[in-house]
Amino acid sequence: MNVIRLSQRSAQLVHLAAQGMLRDPSRKARPSDIPAAIARMGMLQIDTINVVARSPYFVLFSRLGAYRLEWLEDALATGLLAECWAHEACFVAAADYRYHRDFRQSRAGHWAHRSASKTYAQARGDMDALLLRVRENGPMRASDFERDMPATKGWWGWKPEKRWLEAWFAMGGLMVSRRDRFQRVYDLAERVLAGWPVPPPTSVLSDEAIRSHFIGDSVRALGVTRARWIADYCRLTPRVTDDELAPMVARGELLQVAVDGWDGPGYAHPSQVDLLADGARSALRATKTALLSPFDPIVWDRARALDLFDFEYTLECYTPEPKRRFGYFVLPILHRGRLVGRLDAKAHRQEGRFQVKGIWLEDGVEADDALMVGLVRTLRACAAWHGAPRVVVDRSEPRGLATGLNRMLARET
Predict the structure, then answer these.
(1) Of 108 and 345, which is predicted with more confidence?
(2) What is d(CA 66, CA 69) in angstroms, rounded to the nearest whole number?
(3) Between 227-234 and 207-222, two packed helices, what is the crossing angle to 10 degrees?
(4) Gap between the Cα atoms of 181 and 272, Å rounded
(5) Is pLDDT above 60 for 156?
(6) Cβ atoms within 10 Å, residue 242
(7) Which long-range contacts (CB under 8 A, 24 or more apart) does 205-210 make?
């Protein structure tokens, strides 16, 4: 069988196409697009920082355009999605939940599972009593418990009941049945699963079957990948190697791809052979301009983003302010298939103002008409979706970019 060959540029576009990020959608978003987009990505990472829309909402906006936030919660509450530990805390398609459920023991080294085990060892009686209370009284939120004990330094200073709920969630005794104003509502796992349209099988998958599934699904979500990028997507250990993938290629479960400039083989999923063919004949075109969450799958693996897009990215919200180079929650800018810069934004919803504190283009990126128009359209759409339609750009590098953007933004749409 002939090995498909891609240029580095085509490899970038295949990756973006697999993620649904080559072009804007051709229609307005629908509720069914939410679980479909998450299934396409494999998972949707959860984060609570909200200087702009929280990351899971923002990642979906980058792909779908404007949509109603409650669609995500509705899909969770109706059993189309589940929450679990995956790449980190994530939404996953209900059909994939069983793999994450059965992978729990193999993921015991993850910090959340280590913390859960330690918490249970220290507070077994309290945790058992809490589980009994949920069983007898029904779903509960952390806010349903009055603080009668001091918070601890671990797990973000959570009060004990929150830590116990989260420990049961990591251990599998509790699941998130729904969210209430983004607060998790916990219930017994068996009750949550019984209410799903299609409950998962109760049989337990082997470690080999789970690992094989995660490898294949990660490759599908990535479009084209090196072996060393695969493990991070689902936090697999040990790392995935070319030797491990060779039998999967021989069985037809994966395709081997040659990419110009790569020092080893690339891999793709057989379900995307048509996409690869388009990439091989340079038929893919990227027209989309978008802002990316720091927890978007395109950039959450910083080493992959550097390797694939030559884009060096650090999330600086955990960096002391005097040491930040760009800003607290900087959003990478995707333009026509390239990561061309970054933008520090804050949505002032009560004022109706979307503030761009700073925007920085990568070295060698020119602020041409296409980029300016793409940025203005993206900023306007993003600001309107936030309910903060007035956009102001404070500063930029190059310096003239902010002036040009503000002039264009001030014009009538």
Answers:
(1) 345
(2) 9
(3) 110
(4) 38
(5) no
(6) 14
(7) 205/98, 205/99, 205/102, 207/103, 207/106, 210/99, 210/102, 210/103, 210/106
